[in-house]
């Protein structure tokens, strides 16, 4: 376990985070493990924010450091083909967190999915348009704010009202979401990591829920 990386992230020491990420890569530590350390560190940032030891500026900095580290990690991951077809993803409206969503994108791309990223603060209409435009079979909705769970629910209801619900699997993810959230919002599955997302989507492909 790289206590050094967890602590450097929690302390917002960008130079040390970057140096340690490079060090772990050079020691062939798996990328997912490194992301796990970064996530543990940023989790501490979140806790300190809750405890009012950190403020908004620290949250912003932590997101930037994570993005810089992700860039370096992303360069080590070979890009794949798009043989499994299109995966549409976006962060639900009201929410602008995108660090985790972007990690999912990198892993999905490198595992042979073509990713259509709708960005952050995405309203239901954009998801619906994208499902129609790309004939998507799996849609991912990212949500890190508990007060946006209702927006996710509304979005899934809107997809249903548009007559598209039976055509797509809807996956949700983001720090606070769990099985209970999944049930509440009416999604098909929740994935806690990028790797789980890849596995779930590949399983859909193997079960011949063709993505193409
Ligand atoms: C960085 C950060 C920010 C940055 C975001 C920068 C960015 N570009 O994303 C900024 C400064 C903008 C921010 C703002 C706010 N934040 Co903020 N933020 C965080 C923090 C510290 C880290 C989030 C993060 O990047 N995690 C790392 C990534 C890698 O993890 P992840 O997103 O969970 O992703 C993984 C999985 O969940 C999954 N996944 C993610 N998305 C998806 C999608 C799909 C489809 C799937 C399948 C999987 C999947 O895969 C990823 C890789 O494993 C968290 C604390 C925490 N513990 O998460 C608070 C936190 C989420 N924020 C919080 C709050 C309150 C806010 C603000 C409301 C603060 C304010 N007063 O304004 C605003 C809201 C702004 C808005 N409207 O969205 C709270 C939310 C509390 C709650 N109960 O809802 C948290 C939990 C902090 C806390 N403990 O209080 N924040």
TrEMBL record:
The B12-binding domain, residue ranges: 84-212
Keyword presence, Methyltransferase: yes
InterPro entries per record: Cbl-bd_cap, Cobalamin-bd, Cobalamin-bd_sf, Met_Synthase/Corrinoid, Meth_synthase_dom
Keywords: Cobalt, Metal-binding, Methyltransferase, Transferase
Enzyme Commission number: 2.1.1.13
Enzyme class per UniProt: transferase
Superkingdom field: Bacteria
GO cellular component: cytosol
Molecular function in Gene Ontology: cobalamin binding; metal ion binding; methionine synthase activity
One Gene Ontology biological process: tetrahydrofolate metabolic process
Residue ranges of domain B12-binding N-terminal in the record: 1-85
PANTHER family according to UniProt: METHIONINE SYNTHASE
UniProt name for this protein: Methionine synthase
Species for this entry: Clostridium magnum DSM 2767
